[in-house]
Design goal:
By secondary structure, the protein is an all-alpha fold. It has one domain.
Amino acid sequence: MTNTIDAAAASPPQPTTPRTPTAKLVAIGLLGGMLSGLLGVGGGTIMVPLLVFWAGYAQRDAHATSLGAIIPIAIVSAATLGAGAHIDVRAAVFLTIGAVIGARYGAKALARADDRKLQWLFGCFLLAAAFLMLVQG
């Protein structure tokens, strides 16, 4: 009895995003990084809409690409901020534990999500966050 691997399952997913010019991606990263460091928002809050509307990415690919950029952004922002502000290390550790567990489930859901529904859900999330910031701030 031989083990066979389904060719479709073994092949990597085909990119559905256009070949975006490097300068445009750097500009999106620059804006996302600046606002992430300044406002404490995940770079995805800025980068995902820019990747979709300015760079022509599919919604799911924009989310996945933004996720790939989060770790370096967070490291640089935390290291820079840590020199002049208090980082609650205990809270950061517990946030990380929850986030690592949640990210696994979120990434699985992202892989199956319909682009249009994902765009709608992300837009609603941004609107709700903006509303809460305005009324509670």
